[in-house]
Design the sequence.
């Protein structure tokens, strides 16, 4: 279910009590499409996430830890100027549309009280957050400034008059009376036709309402459906195609399987969107890194193909030597000015072999030319083989960096950037850079096994090196997926049980490129057996004498073991 009008109606029932009359304490914009408003109420901070993400626009109270950017975007600076310290007087929905207005009371520079509206429009790719003055109706600023050529319906720029977007009128099921329902029933004799006229419903809600009315086409049945949204709970369901969806009620007429339920809609939303939002935030922050990794990988793949072709030619260069020998043996038959000649090949039972000649060269020079080409090709094998090894090593390294990005949290991206700068793939910014944070145990992912033992996991190659080569006790156990990019995992114990090994291996499999695979082979060995070759890329180590175990990582079970 999307954030349709009915979902928003349900959410606001819960949100009103949480933050209305609260003072807006902090405002920041951790990502391009996302705002975080921190309200102070009853001596507690309540963190409201507002997202204008075009794929899944949303708002809810979140317990996620957001980092405040070093430089505040312009819109946030405007919001801080006008709203910071103000009191939230009211939260209202425009009818049953996907527009939520937050009404604030504050004082201007002269001390006069002003009324401001922060309008949140959760409308797919047209989603936006707009601050305007309630009295004048003039827009002060907005999250996404829209060029007039891109939107002819209304002007979305500072100082323009705020206007509602074009809305499709419909029937409000919450205010509908029984007599009005009876009239509508005559006008729309089938439940499906009436459901189409109702406002604020997405496809799933419309299908569910139709099911209610088909069971009993009555005003009572309609009210039963709508009353669910006034006392909402949260239900996560899974479609036949294994897609997760969240509802403020339990649908009975949709083909879905219930996964979980909660009495708190905000908390359920926070958990439901955690993975999707995290991947989106990582994607936003890692665009530069991903672009560099992708481009460098493509270059190296092209280079590898050329080198392999060159090596194949060098290894199959015997024909050059044979051609030179045949020309020398039958030199008397080769005449100046010839472009080719057929000579008996005594290596192949005197079968005729066609040899191309340069007519500008003498017979002796043609023979010497073949010998020189043969020697050059054979001499190149060692160099080309070395270049192939270097190229393959660089490809493996970039593959490991991409795996780091795929498994990263938003705050981990800066460390990955720093790693690529150190390796020469990225240029350091000209402006003064902050000193990179020193790697400590707090930087790592940490897990607690069923036995109570601790497992440490590196988030990037620099952390992997530090964890394995400096931090870990030599008698503790090291885990890594076999021949696949992934994190270094340390079980901080020298005598692990079979259960400890199993759980640690599952964590190693999860933090690897094979996280979504089954029967993942994981190597494990004591740290003292791990060596790092001189000049090797970050994260690359060698070892012998390891044991292996096959595991299938289950995300929910693994993440439940995570500790802060």
Sequence:
């Amino acid at each position: 279910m999307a954030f349709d009008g009915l979902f928003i109606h349900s959410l606001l029932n819960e949100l009103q009590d949480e933050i209305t009359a609260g003072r807006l304490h902090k405002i920041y914009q951790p990502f391009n499409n996302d705002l975080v408003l921190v309200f102070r109420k009853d001596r507690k901070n309540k963190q409201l996430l507002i997202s204008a993400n075009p794929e899944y626009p949303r708002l809810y109270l979140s317990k996620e830890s957001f980092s405040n950017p070093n430089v505040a975007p312009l819109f946030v600076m405007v919001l801080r100027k006008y709203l910071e310290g103000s009191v939230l007087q009211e939260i209202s929905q425009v009818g049953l549309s996907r527009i939520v207005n937050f009404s604030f009371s504050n004082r201007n520079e002269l001390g006069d009280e002003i009324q401001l509206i922060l309008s949140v429009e959760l409308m797919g790719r047209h989603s936006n957050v707009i601050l305007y003055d309630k009295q004048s109706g003039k827009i002060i600023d907005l999250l996404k400034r829209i060029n007039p050529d891109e939107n002819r319906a209304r002007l979305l720029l500072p100082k323009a008059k705020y206007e509602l977007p074009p809305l499709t009128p419909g029937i409000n099921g919450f205010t509908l009376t029984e007599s009005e329902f009876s009239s509508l029933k005559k006008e729309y004799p089938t439940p499906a036709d009436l459901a189409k006229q109702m406002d604020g419903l997405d496809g799933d809600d419309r299908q569910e309402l139709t099911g209610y009315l088909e069971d009993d086409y009555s005003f009572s049945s309609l009210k039963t459906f709508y009353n669910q949204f006034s006392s909402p709970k949260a239900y996560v369901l899974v479609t036949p195609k294994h897609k997760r969806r969240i509802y403020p009620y339990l649908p009975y007429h949709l083909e879905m399987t219930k996964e979980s339920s909660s009495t708190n809609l905000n908390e359920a939303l926070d958990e439901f969107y955690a993975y999707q939002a995290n991947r989106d935030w990582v994607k936003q922050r890692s665009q530069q890194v991903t672009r560099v990794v992708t481009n460098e990988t493509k270059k190296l793949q092209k280079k590898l193909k050329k080198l392999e072709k060159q090596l194949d030619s060098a290894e199959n260069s015997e024909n050059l030597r044979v051609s030179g020998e045949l020309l020398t043996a039958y030199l008397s038959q080769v005449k100046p000015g010839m472009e080719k000649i057929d000579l008996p090949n005594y290596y192949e039972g005197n079968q005729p072999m066609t040899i191309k000649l340069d007519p500008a060269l003498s017979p002796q020079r043609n023979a010497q030319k073949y010998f020189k080409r043969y020697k050059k090709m054979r001499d190149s094998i060692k160099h080309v083989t070395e270049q192939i090894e270097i190229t393959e090593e660089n490809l493996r390294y970039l593959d490991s960096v991409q795996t780091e990005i795929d498994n990263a949290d938003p705050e981990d991206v800066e460390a990955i950037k720093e790693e690529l700068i150190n390796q020469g793939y990225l240029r350091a910014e000209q402006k003064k850079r902050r000193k990179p944070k020193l790697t400590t145990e707090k930087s790592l992912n940490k897990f607690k096994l069923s036995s109570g033992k601790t497992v440490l996991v590196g988030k990037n190659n620099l952390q992997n090196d530090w964890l394995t080569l400096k931090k870990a006790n030599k008698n503790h156990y090291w885990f890594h997926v076999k021949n696949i990019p992934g994190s270094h995992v340390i079980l901080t114990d020298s005598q692990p049980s079979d259960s400890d090994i199993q759980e640690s291996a599952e964590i190693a499999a999860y933090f690897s490129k094979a996280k979504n695979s089954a029967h993942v082979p994981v190597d494990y060995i004591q740290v003292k057996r791990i060596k790092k070759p001189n000049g090797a890329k970050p994260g690359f180590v060698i070892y012998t004498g390891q044991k292996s175990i096959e595991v299938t990582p289950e995300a929910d079970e693994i993440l439940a073991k995570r500790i802060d």
